[in-house]
Amino acid sequence: MRVVVKATNSSGTGTATSAPTAVVQPPPTPPANTAPPTISGTAQDGQTLTASPGTWTGTQPISYAYQWQRCDSSGANCAGITGATAATYTVLSADVGGTLAVLVTATNAGGSVAATSSPTATVQPTPPAVTSQPTVSGMAQEGQTLTATSGSWSGTTPIAYAYQWQSCDPTGTDCGPIAGATVSTYTVTTGDVGTTIRILVTATNAAGSVSDFSAATAVVQSAGAPPANTSPPTISGTAQVGQPLTASPGTWTGTQPISYAYQWQRCDSSGANCNPITGATSAGYTATTADVGSTLSVAVTGSNTVGGATATSAPTATVQSAGSATIFSDGFESGNFSAWSSVVTGGDGTATVQSAIVSTGSYAAQLSESANTGSKSYVRETFSAQQDLTATGDFQVLQQGASGGNVPFFRFLDPSGTRIVSLYRQNGTTGTIGLTYGGLHPATTGKLALNTWATLSVHLTTSGTGGTVTVTLNGTQIYQATDATLASVGTATLQLGNDSAAQAFGIVADTISVQSGSGSSPTPPANTSPPTIAGTAQQGQTLTASPGTWSGTQPINYAYQWQRCDSSGANCNPIGGATSTSYTLTSTDVGSTIEVTVTASNMAGSAIASSAPTAVVVPGSGPPPGLVALWHMDETTGSTMFDSVGAHNGTLHSTQTGLPGFTGTAYGFNGSSSYVGVPSTADLNPGTANITFTIHLQTSGTPPPPPADWDVFRKG
Length: 716
Known about the structure:
The strands form 17 sheets. Strands 30, 32, 33, 35, 40, 41, 42 and 44 form an eight-stranded antiparallel β-sheet that branches. Strands 31-34-43-36-37-38-39 form a seven-stranded antiparallel β-sheet, with no helix packed on it. Strands 8-7-10-11 form a four-stranded antiparallel β-sheet, with no helix packed on it. The radius of gyration is 42 Å and the shape is flat. 0% of the residues lie in helices and 46% in strands. It folds into six domains: 32-116, Immunoglobulin-like, CATH 2.60.40; 129-213, Immunoglobulin-like (Sandwich); 228-312, Immunoglobulin-like, CATH 2.60.40.2700; 327-516, Jelly Rolls; 526-610, Immunoglobulin-like (Sandwich), CATH 2.60.40; 628-716, no CATH class. The chain contains no helices and 58 strands. By secondary structure, the chain is mainly beta.
């Protein structure tokens, strides 16, 4: 199309023509469906269906809107599902038994037209599936009531739950149903004493039945049980004058509630000949000067309405005097230098905390420096000035420099940062340990080979011309001066490594400590309260170890080894790879007890202590060990008997279903042609091992006379 415009005025007339339009189109064609919409996916509760709009003609563009519909089982009487307007739809329990269709509305400039898909197959239910196991709450004691929860389940609703309480052996295995105990609560009887209890929950919906077990309760106690100690009292704290000690009552069985009374006792150095300490009757006690040289124990009396009993802790270590105070200590177990005031490196010097070369624990510091210009490496810890102190540490020399130089261990600085004393290893073949102070460079009688651990200790008193310097190597004195000229301003900084550049060396340092006063010879660790284990002794649960309480020179590092023992806590063997503070129980542990062995190490040595064993490890959720098949026989239609714990489904032959049963429904057999066949599998054929079958059976007549009979089980 064009338009011609004619313009006229007093001078004349002119015309102009427009550009042409686009080609003129016919009117838009509305959508027309040439292939109906389709639905893909499985028509089952919980599954997702996807709609395809089908094929349409008409003027483009065409947009599509969806409306899912719920129809009867024949695909008729469809109604829109509120909110179901996307191209996908997740099938709901409300859809089970019906069919689904999708209405697609196609829209373009010419209008809107709708088309409907064919209906799906009849929507099938989804069987129950456990998402969190059933639980049992309440006290496992004669006369007490236990309460079961069904746990959490997915599957087509509604889901009905049936309960069957089970009596199991003390380890939670070898379970059998308790007759008549089929509601969610159960009152513990005298016959249950010494056993454990579990609940078997069977979830049933239109798709079938599935069962799951709770964890086992604790071993059932009698109603009138006096207190009995099963794990002795323990004492935590440091056996030293002025230090607080705390008693734990240990573990007790018996009728609850149980109250505890405490009596602290002073014993001889071997832990014998104990006598009560007047007035020391609370859970806490602070050691006094009267306790020095003795050991301490605590007697705990547990009492309830039935009676009382007393148990006594192991003795503490020998009580020490107040001693000197620790100013600083670091075993580098943080994995870094966070305990130190400063870390300085220069050039190609390095200062790291590593785990490859250690004296005790898992980490140690490594300092290295080369002869290159600017290379240096040192760490410092600054504290209030001390006139009398002792520094101790473990050292290993990895590399030495040229002859005439040295490898520095300790350097002591005054408050202004001026060196007071340096302790080092002289470079060369002899490895002599030397000192520098007051302008002197005395040699000691000690020597240290390369790549060898040694414990060095330096005791300083800074009092002008009457200062003292004492050095020990692995506990043996190798130097002493009582007339050293040391400034009386005191020592305020401890340094490891070298603060003057280009002095080649490589050292590893561990378990560094600074104490006020002369200190004392390092003492090895001694266990005063055994390691403990927290957590539930059940497959899949995580146990956590505490190292217990130890005396000895700090810092003390701890290493762990978990042990698997027999049910009495004896015949223990280490569990491969179980060397951290926590351990997750496996199926291999079921029926055993678990212990943890803790090795405590410091600069003076090491010692080992073991925890008490846990309770016998019980299975986790799921069926008891050894259960390979469980048939509820509660199907009401069809010809399949479903196994709820395995894959041993059977086929019904001339068998009635849906009859009243021991729990739920049951099968009926006519005594001649009725039976259920289960295919043979390896776990139903144990060879020479025992196999046990259990069935709830009610007869409605008597068998025919011999030689005829009724088979309850036939295994061939």
